[in-house]
Design brief:
The protein is mainly alpha-helical. It folds into two domains: 66 residues, no CATH class; 112 residues, no CATH class. The protein contains ten helices and no strands. 18% of the residues are buried.
Amino acid sequence: AMLLVVGLSAMALHLGFEAILGAFVAGAVLRLVDPHAERSHPRFHMKLAGLGYGFLVPVFFVTSGIQFNLGALFEDAGTILRVPMFLAALLLVRGLPALLYRATGLSWPEVAAGALLQATSLPVIVAAATIGLKLDAIRPENASALVAAGLLSVVIFPLIALPLLHRSRQHPPADGRTRRDTGLTRSAARP
């Protein structure tokens, strides 16, 4: 499996494709070669996932961290001002759907905490910025601002969200409802 990943990733890079395409093809080839691997080798997927998440993914993020262009972030005032703009965009795009949680009976602090927690994003941003830079689809200063916003989102948003959750657990709703009450239950209780 590792030989396939390394070989097909190297081949993909040599042909001008992203290495991740080679890794994906390696997984597809493994599925074709041994379609019943879950039954014949029950621990194979667990070992492969452990190797991937324990070694290969961290290597990607270490190399991405090494390539992070901190200088581009501070070259221009406009670039540093993009960081809070991108951070707000993350909260808007990824956090706004949390308003739907209110219909499930969650309190406003719980909805706000959910919005903040689901707005955290670093892995996808790092991967997208890395690929965008390699394809010359994004300017280095924008990539740096995006990655900085993603980094701030995983640091700041949980620091705000966790106290909101803690406070909402200590103070149940004033009207006596439980968090599990749905809109149907509340409307049925009205006179």
